[in-house]
Amino acid sequence: MDDWGSLPASWSGQAVLAAFVFALVMAAVSDFVSLRIPNWLTGTLALAFPAAALALGHGVDWLSHLEAGLAVFTAGAMLFACRMLGGGDVKLLAATAFWTGLNLVPDLLVTVAFAGGVFAAFVLGIRHPVVHATLLQVLRRLPAFAQKKMPIPYGVPIAIAGILLAPRLPFLG
What we know:
Elements: H1 11-34, H2 39-56, H3 62-81, H4 87-100, H5 105-127, H6 129-139, H7 155-165
Helix pairs in contact: 1-2, 1-7, 2-4, 3-4, 4-7, 5-7
């Protein structure tokens, strides 16, 4: 991806991009370590979008961003009800979609799916009995998701997808 070569030139654009990426990294680390994404973090990420978009002064298709966030949240809530996605993952994905707008939601979902598949393969590799025992001897402690019955921290692939798409956020101009 050459998108990172076309970063916003303004300090405010770079600050917004850095804050977005930082929030996603925090969410990924939290989910990786504790299998939890704090509500205050996803709430802050969602609430920061209008402030960031207004601060940058570019035209924003507000309806597109609201529809993206609501559509992804609705679909995510259904997956949560079927126990296929965690509540924190749903909120993080919806907040990220709110930032991307409708035009980038398909790219976001495809990137999340691809990153999620790669990450799931990594987690399943860690859960293999031989790998698990070896890592446990070397590291003495493994993250909670390394246990077979634990969920996969899907906040990690969501954050990766959001970070990869960050330079293409429509309001960065």
